[in-house]
Design brief:
The protein is an alpha/beta fold and about 280 residues long. The chain contains twelve helices and eight strands. Strands 3-4-2-5-1-6-7-8 form an eight-stranded mixed β-sheet, sandwiched between helices. The protein is globular, with a radius of gyration of 17 Å. The C terminus is likely disordered.
Length: about 280
C-alpha cells in the first residue's frame, strides 16, 4: 500500500511520538517503521524494554541483495505487534547510529519492500538532514512526506531548507504537509505562506499521553479518549488524503535513482542545514 514518511527539523518536536499517535488511530492496517538514521527508541520507550523483538530493520536490510521478494518475505518475519488488535505492527529500527551508513545502499530495496506490503507504512525518519545515511528513497517513493514541527521561529528556520530538499526529492511540494505539535505559536496561515506547504493537522500538548507513547510511563487503557489520540485520528485522515501520485520519471528513471542523485548533490545543502535546529 502507501508509504508515509515523517521527518522533523530537529529540536525534539516529537516525531516518534507523533508517528505512534497516528498509527494507533490509523483507520486501516499500518506498520510503523523506525527509519531514523540516529536509531530507533520505541522498544526502549513505549515498551520500556519489555518486548523481545527480532532484528527489525537490520534483518530486512540483510536480505536486500536477494531482491524485492526476499525483502518482503523477511519484513513479515521482523514485525511485532503494537497493540492487541493485530492491525498495527512495528518494524524496530537500528540500535546504534553507526549502523546507518551500512543501510545507505539498501534503502531502495527496503522502500520497495515497504510498498509491497498489504498495509500502509508510517516511516519515522526522524531529523532530516543532507547526507548519504538518510533514507532518501523512502521520501522519493512516499505517497506523502510529513514535516513534524512545533510552530516556533526556531523550528521554521530548521524546517525551511529541509522542506526544500524534500521537495527536490519528491519532484515538487504536492506531497508535502505539516503536522504541528502544540497549538500556540506562529499562526497556521503564516506557516503555510512561509514554508509553501499546508498544515494538515495539529497535535495538542498532552504530556500524560505523550509520556505513555515516548517512555511507556502510565496506563495505556482508554488512550482513544485522550486529547492527543482524538487529534491524531483527525490528523491521520488529513495525512492519508494528502497523498498524491508519484511523478513520472524521465526515461523510466526510478524514484530511488532520483534520491541517489539528490544525495550526491546534497553537499551543497549541508551548509544551509547546519544552521538549522540541532
Amino acid at each position: 500500500m502507501a508509504i508515509y514518511a515523517l521527518i522533523s527539523p530537529g529540536g525534539s518536536p516529537g516525531c516518534t511520538t507523533a508517528t505512534l499517535a497516528l498509527a494507533l488511530a490509523w483507520p486501516r492496517q499500518v506498520i510503523v517503521a523506525e527509519c531514523d538514521p540516529g536509531g530507533g527508541d520505541i522498544l526502549a520507550g513505549l515498551f520500556a524494554g519489555h518486548l523481545q523483538a527480532p532484528r527489525g530493520l537490520l534483518g530486512v536490510a540483510f536480505e536486500a541483495s536477494r531482491g524485492p521478494a526476499a525483502v518482503a518475505a523477511e519484513l513479515a518475519t521482523q514485525l511485532v505487534p503494537l497493540d492487541e488488535s493485530g492491525q498495527r505492527r512495528l518494524l524496530a529500527g537500528i540500535s546504534d547510529p553507526r549502523q546507518a551508513l551500512g543501510l545507505s545502499p539498501v534503502w531502495p530495496a527496503i522502500s520497495a519492500g515497504f510498498a509491497s506490503q498489504p498495509a500502509d507504512v508510517l516511516a519515522d525518519c526522524g531529523r532530516f538532514d543532507a547526507g548519504v545515511s538518510q533514507p532518501l528513497s523512502l521520501l522519493a517513493d512516499a505517497a506523502a512526506i510529513i514535516m513534524v514541527m512545533r510552530p516556533t521561529l526556531r523550528q521554521v528556520a530548521g524546517a525551511r531548507p529541509r522542506i526544500d530538499l524534500a521537495a527536490q526529492i519528491a519532484g515538487g511540494r504536492d506531497r508535502i504537509g505539516l503536522l504541528l505539535v502544540g497549538d500556540s505559536g506562529i499562526p497556521q496561515a503564516d506557516l503555510t505562506r512561509t514554508l509553501d506547504v499546508p498544515v494538515l493537522g495539529t497535535l495538542p500538548e498532552d504530556a500524560k499521553t505523550a509520556r505513555v507513547l515516548s517512555d511507556g510511563e502510565g496506563q495505556r487503557t482508554h488512550l482513544d479518549r485522550r486529547p492527543l489520540m482524538r487529534a491524531a485520528r483527525v490528523a491521520g485522515q488529513a495525512v492519508a488524503r494528502r497523498r498524491a501520485p508519484l511523478p513520472e520519471r524521465a526515461a523510466g528513471q526510478a524514484a530511488s535513482q532520483v534520491a541517489s542523485q539528490v544525495a550526491s548533490r546534497s553537499g551543497s545543502l549541508a551548509a544551509d542545514l547546519s544552521g538549522g535546529a540541532k
